[in-house]
Structures are given as C-alpha cells and as structure tokens.
UniProtKB/TrEMBL annotation:
The keyword Transmembrane applies. The chain crosses the membrane at residues 80-98. Keywords: Membrane, Transmembrane, Transmembrane helix. It comes from Streptomyces coelicoflavus. It comes from the Bacteria. This is DoxX family membrane protein.
Amino acid sequence: MRLPVELRHVAPRLATGAFILNSGLSKRGADEQTAAMMHGMAKNTYPFLGRMQPTAFLRLLSAGEITLGAALLLPVVPTAVAGIGLTAFSAALVGLYLRTPGMREEGSLRPTQEGTALAKDTWMLGIGVGFVVDGATRRAC
C-alpha cells in the first residue's frame, strides 16, 4: 500500500504538524483569563466570534489545532487535504496579524516586536499553499 504522502512533504508536515498539535494541546487546560484574552483578540479581527463564550472559543480552537496537527502528522491523510486545512488555519492567523493594530510598523508589512509572534505564521501559509498547489498540479498531469 502506497501512502498519500510524497517524501518531499515529510519534513514540512512534521514541522507544522508538531507545532500546531503542541499549540492545541497547550490550550486544553487554559484558564478563563487566557480564554478571554485570546477570544478578545480573535473577535476584534473576526467580529462573528463575539457571539461565542471565551471558554467555548478556546475549546474549539484547541480541538481544531489538535485535529489539524494530527492530520499533518498522520501519513494516511493526503497532503493536499492536510494542506487545505493548513492554508485555511494559517490564513486566519495571517488575518489576525494584518488586522490587529500594533502588529505592524506604520504603513508597512514589517512586524513590530509584538507582531513577530503572528507574522511568523506566514511560513505556515506558504507551506499550506504549496501542498495544495502540488496536489492540484499532480492530479492535472
């Protein structure tokens, strides 16, 4: 049986999968203050999230990160499928970076010191888009 993962995808899948899985696991036991802080930042960028309770938001975020991290780490999940999830997730994080005041230098895409933690998520967006494009072009051939 051939796995739906190309050898060239293993390293970026392991790196992003482990990173995201760890992030999701670390949020599982977060307190209400942490939930409120994370929810507040997210709802300022994505107002529809304001209808959720902070603890419910954090539980869903944690579950989503655990699921995505596992999908990237498990070689039975096709890279293109995992790439779609990674692209969507990282695009939302890049949206936080671009829309949150104080994350970028005035009139620039360059991050401030505070914005570096979110700006780094652009590498995940690049990997996710690469996985999706690779999957689409391999099917077209």
